[in-house]
Amino acid sequence: MPTIVFVSPKGGAGKTTSALVLAEQIARSVPVTVIDADPNHPIQSWASGPNTPANLSVVSNADEQNMIDVIEEAAARTPFVLVDLEGTAAKIVLLAVSQADLVIVPTQGSQLDAAQASRALRVIKQQEKMSRRAVPYGVLITRTNPAIRTRTATHLMKTFHDAGISMFNTELHEREAFKALFAFNQPLSHLDPKDVSNLDKAVANAEQYATEVIGTLRAGLQNGAAT
Length: 227
Ligand SMILES: Nc1ncnc2c1ncn2[C@@H]1O[C@H](COP(=O)(O)OP(=O)(O)OP(=O)(O)O)[C@@H](O)[C@H]1O
Ligand SMILES: [Mg+2]
What we know:
By secondary structure, the chain is of the alpha/beta class. The chain is built from eight helices and seven strands, in the order βαβαβαβαβαβαβαα. The chain has a single domain (3-219), classed as Rossmann fold. It has helices spanning 15-27, 42-47, 67-77, 91-98, 111-131, 151-162, 176-184, 199-218, and strands at residues 3-6, 32-36, 56-59, 80-84, 102-108, 137-144, 172-173. Helix 1 (15-27) packs across helix 8 (199-218) and helix 4 (91-98) packs across helix 5 (111-131). The radius of gyration is 16 Å and the shape is globular. Residues 8, 11-17, 38, 86-87, 142-143, 172-175, 178-179, 182 line the site of adenosine-5'-triphosphate.
């Protein structure tokens, strides 16, 4: 019953988007609960739209007092639990990470974002010391241009790689469809290709991302290796 927690202190790094995209892919085969721990409740609002998959439920009552209980209750109900946090490095993040089978650190390919990702990695290391267990994690590069790899992004990826930081091979590309999810309050599977360009490519990207995440979990999550 894996719990996957999305962490980055950087606002706009893509936590909520990557959490929802993964949730929809998992819900195609098994029930999943998303704990929407952002006080603005973006995933809860999204789920008020039509066509939310029956397998996907959203819980939005988690706070610092009850986070661990809320995760335990959700894990007892559904095989997968995803936790979307607001962009802070507060205690609630540590609590959620303490329950994680995998932490995903979404990061855009710029120097500023990478510095913020490093802060998220420090939170993971802190939790590892507190709990005396390895917390598997992977940095997920988000919002990349599928056609062009910028020099900055290449450099940053190399820096992460050289520092021994676990990275997902799949990137979540910048796609209109990933914005349209929230604009239309619809899952990817119900967006209309007439409204949203390159929808098929976004779906393929979402599938590849979910496959890699599930493969990482299956691989036994040894030593935090996501690659
Ligand atoms: N892969 C993507 N393609 C296109 N747009 C994206 C993508 N990922 C995120 N966005 C857009 O970037 C903005 C920020 O994304 P998101 O809300 O997922 O970030 P966040 O890390 O959850 O932010 P916060 O810390 O504020 O909760 C949103 O407008 C979202 O639609
Ligand atoms: Mg968010």
